[in-house]
Amino acid sequence: KAILIATDFAKDINIDKNEFNRLISLDLNQLIKDDTNIKFEYRARYLMKYLDIKYIYIMSVIPNSQVKYKVEKDEENLYNKSEGTPLKVIYLLDAVINDIERNKDMTDGKYLDKDRYTIINDEYIKVCKNKKAIYFFNRDKWGNYLTAYTPIYDNNGRFMGVMGVDIYLRHYLRLANNNIYSIVGISIIISIIAIIKIIKLSKENYSANNKIKKLSICSLTYALNRGSFMEKLKDEFDDSKKNKRHISI
């Protein structure tokens, strides 16, 4: 689902080189008030409120000359990168599910300038290399999510970055649990049907054996009838011949 949303959303993005340069010149507080981001977020929120998505965003790599921040020593676990790793990725456009959640991400009612940047993760590199959408479990400073990345291009068809969609992990786990319950329920039903069939076949076999047994015995004397006697005699004869012993009936 996350991949489909990211891929579909990316189709309607139209950003040229001048607009790209203008957007990366803004800090995050300026960006969220910019008309381009307001329109992007308005469209994104229409989907997000129905699909339990927290973030939809575009990420792009900035030139080395514009890198302002690096991973600090106390941030190594947060970014899963060593101290000094440059934050070379910028959130070009950013949408949050609602203003309440956006305010939770802020510090004293504002974003820190550093909040707009992050590291180039392995998944970004994979999409950049293969130009194919992927999804993965993501843990970063903003939380834990099921994330989808899909490649996004400028209006000249050049690779510009990735469109990202973050689904609440609790929503994914809830769906996964529902699927597990469905699978278990189906398995139980199949097992019950199988047991019923086994019992039914056992009864049918038991009934058939009784009928065969009754046909082999005389109803008056309860002794073997002539056909059954000759069949048993033949079996005994063959067995005695094979094992070199006397016939016994």
Automatic annotation (TrEMBL):
<keyword id="KW-0812">Transmembrane</keyword>
<keyword id="KW-0472">Membrane</keyword>
<keyword id="KW-1133">Transmembrane helix</keyword>
<protein>
    <submittedName>
        <fullName>Putative diguanylate cyclase</fullName>
    </submittedName>
</protein>
<feature type="transmembrane region" description="Helical">
    <location>
        <begin position="180"/>
        <end position="199"/>
    </location>
</feature>
<dbReference type="InterPro" id="IPR029151">
    <property type="entry name" value="Sensor-like_sf"/>
</dbReference>
